[in-house]
Amino acid sequence: MAIDNETVKRVAFLSRLRVENDKVDATKEEFNKILTWIEELNEVNTDNVEALISVNDLSLRTRPDEVTAGHCRTEILKNAPAAEYDYFAVPKVVE
Amino acid sequence: MQEITKLTIAEALQGLKNKNFTAVELTEAYLKNMAQGKKYNAYITECADVALAQAKIADQNYAVGKARALEGIPLGIKDLFCTKNIRTTAASHILDNFVPPYESTVTQHLLDDGVVFLGKLNLDEFAMGGSNETSYFGPVINPWSKDKLLVPGGSSGGSAAAVAAHLCAGSTGTDTGGSIREPAAFCGVTGIKPTYGRCSRYGIVAFASSLDQAGPIAQDVRDCAVLLNSMAGFDEKDSTSCNLPVPDYTSFLEQDIKGLVIGLPKEYRPNGLNTEIAAYWDKAAEMLKARGAIIKEISLPHTKYALATYYVLAPAEASSNLARYDGIRYGYRAKAEGEHLDELYIRTRTEGFGKEVKRRIMIGTYVLSAGYYDAYYLKAQKMRRLIRDDFMEAFKQCDIILTPTSPITAFPIGDESMLQNPINMYLNDVFTVSVNLAGLPAMSLPIGLAQNGLPLGMQLIGKPFDEGTIFKTAAAIEADAKFERI
């Protein structure tokens, strides 16, 4: 399943990453190399194999939906690239 | 180098108890080593002030006879563990100004036991890499380097190099596909990746959540046991953490291995396996046999497919985990005034992530995208079951598995074949990734030096939650191998 330039651009956008126009060909070739290598998995018939989602056989625990850590707005906003009026601030966006 | 920094953690604890030296003296000795060892680039952030304050408290506790299990032991922390009020970068530009307001569970356990934090250790960006060369803060230098500068392995390259060069008494690492074991092997130190679920992942910057596990790197097997005793344990904050009792791992070290069945997987001896590595593998098996263990050839038939399986699943999980870095709430934000909101995300992520991280995000996004999910992601999840089943079958015939850790010794920084073709770099993980896919515990310990003067590691793989058998077997190999550390 070799991928083309359009797919590279689409995947880049889905990833919210930019691949410059002059890098699209190189990226495509690199991806195709990796994907061809991955396709060796098709040598194995897995029709009757159940997908393994978690190595631990236990089912996930549930817990009461309680606030365990709160009232730390100031601490959290310290890491914000921009904050105003006790909120995260984002650039003005016109859509 | 300061003499007291050559002590193991177990020896240093004895020295502190006997008042041969104080925790402040021990910490200052490491800080001096760190100043002299800047050339290794092992630390991203040093925190001498924090360390000295913690060491003073440790000395007070010794003075009043209230010393905790690791009181006053200076450690380095992989910069993937969130540490409260100490910058945590994941070796990425996108997090290079991030100061967590909370502490990871594993590092909290260590703090509760009285350790001293010397600083945050270098790694591959977001732990994605096998050579520490993808770090935004530059590569770590392997302390075994002679004429050429060598990589320390990765991703926990700083953690392994710092222990080897005595820039800390022990360190924390994380292992998603070999990231504790490979650097431990390359740097001639010992590291264990415990069973998935043994150590809490809470507060560890996520790479591939179904594979990531924290573990210690230290000078010897006993120190790994001492550190893991503190790091392991159930945590409500991690839904995959297992609620099982943690045994005292040091209690296994002196145990007899008579009658223990050691499995040697035939698939780990492909044509073209480095003859020196094969010879050391045989030698390690002989050592165990001489102590009464039974050596048995086993088969793990799907071994060949483990790497390709891993390089579907790990990037898929990474692409999802790393979606959170959008420049809005924390971390780096690109300048993008008055444009489409997506433009802000795209610029932030394109400028903030390095090449290997972007490659994996895109591969992961592709294998999860509509139309390809079944062919790649679901296929890999099915392969993962076959790989795990192989181990479960093998463990019906043996108690523990012995293999080499890596097919090569440490290689030069900037190696062309590795950098030109990412698959060549990925192949270094051939002996380690299956363990993560199966969720098993595994340790790497040094066995000897290759002709080129560089350390080689042996890997011991245990049954789920049977780290104890790994510790007793490793202790036996260590006693016979008599590896000479730096």
Provide a short characterization of the protein structure.
The complex is a heterodimer of chains A (95) and B (486). Chain A is mainly alpha-helical. Chain A is 32% helix and 4% strand.
What does this structure look like?
The complex is a heterodimer of chains A (95) and B (486). Chain A is mainly alpha-helical and 95 residues long. Helices cover 32% and strands 4% of the residues of chain A. Chain A has a domain at 5-43. In chain A, strands 1-2 form a two-stranded antiparallel ribbon. In chain A, strand 1 and strand 2 form a beta hairpin. In chain B, strand 7 (261-265), helix 8 (275-290) and strand 8 form a beta-alpha-beta unit. The mean pLDDT of chain B is 96. Chain B has helices spanning 9-17, 23-36, 48-63, 105-112, 157-164, 181-187, 221-231, 275-290, 306-321, 341-352, 355-368, 373-394, 416-420, 422-426, 433-438, 467-481; strands at residues 43-46, 74-78, 116-121, 170-175, 190-193, 213-218, 261-265, 294-298, 400-404, 442-449, 455-462. With 486 residues, chain B is α/β, with parallel strands linked by helices. Chain B has a domain at 3-256 and 410-481: Amidase signature (AS) domain (Amidase signature (AS) enzymes). In chain B, strands 1-3-2-4-6-5-10-11-9-7-8 form an eleven-stranded mixed beta sheet, with helices on both faces. Chain B is built from 16 helices and eleven strands. Chains A and B meet through helix 1 and helix 2 of A and helix 9, helix 10, helix 11 and helix 12 of B.
